[in-house]
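Fill in residues.
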């Protein structure tokens, strides 16, 4: 094959991992997993069941925390950086006010304190876009990869796999199980399929 031939993406379609027909800009709670390119352990190591992030892991943590300032409808929940992937809960609130998932899901920011999730109610919602989960994850990956590649002087090198895994959190029980899974993930590193 000629190295300069253009590849027609229609001949190599990407299979979407998203739920067919679901609008990922809808207010809701989502569990995501984002994996590094070729599962490379870039972000630190697990020692005695505790994740010790390195410089790149700190960049990933910071990029995650900054998402809420870029996307006002986003509330960030439980999150963990692992050596070659991250898990996190993202809540997309309705910028026009209203309740999360029409009031069907009443989850907690902190399992210990029992605080309810805030729903953002902006006074000028027409000035803001209701971004969906794929755009939010794209931004997270882009912000973190750019900073990591700048430090390691490797512009354009892949840090993340092309897609990500998501799960729509449907109720309190589902949320509690995922929250616990995220919290104990470093302790289960040796059993993790991504290890």
């Amino acid at each position: 094959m000629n190295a300069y031939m253009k590849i027609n993406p229609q001949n190599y379609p990407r299979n979407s991992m998203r739920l067919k027909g679901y609008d990922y800009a809808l207010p809701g709670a989502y569990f995501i997993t984002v994996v590094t390119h070729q599962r490379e352990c870039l972000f630190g190591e697990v020692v005695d069941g505790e994740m010790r992030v390195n410089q790149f892991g700190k960049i990933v943590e910071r990029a995650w925390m900054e998402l809420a300032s870029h996307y006002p409808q986003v509330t960030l929940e439980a999150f963990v950086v692992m050596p070659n992937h991250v898990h996190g809960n993202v809540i997309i609130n309705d910028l026009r006010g209203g309740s999360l998932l029409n009031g069907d899901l009443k989850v907690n920011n902190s399992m210990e304190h029992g605080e309810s999730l805030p729903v953002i109610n902006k006074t000028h919602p027409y000035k803001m876009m209701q971004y969906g989960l794929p755009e939010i994850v794209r931004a997270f990956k882009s912000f973190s990869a750019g900073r990591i590649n700048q430090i390691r002087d490797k512009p354009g090198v892949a840090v993340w796999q092309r897609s990500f895994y998501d799960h729509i959190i449907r109720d309190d029980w589902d949320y509690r199980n995922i929250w616990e899974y995220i919290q104990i993930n470093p302790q289960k590193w040796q059993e993790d399929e991504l290890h």
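The chain is about 25% helix and 20% strand.
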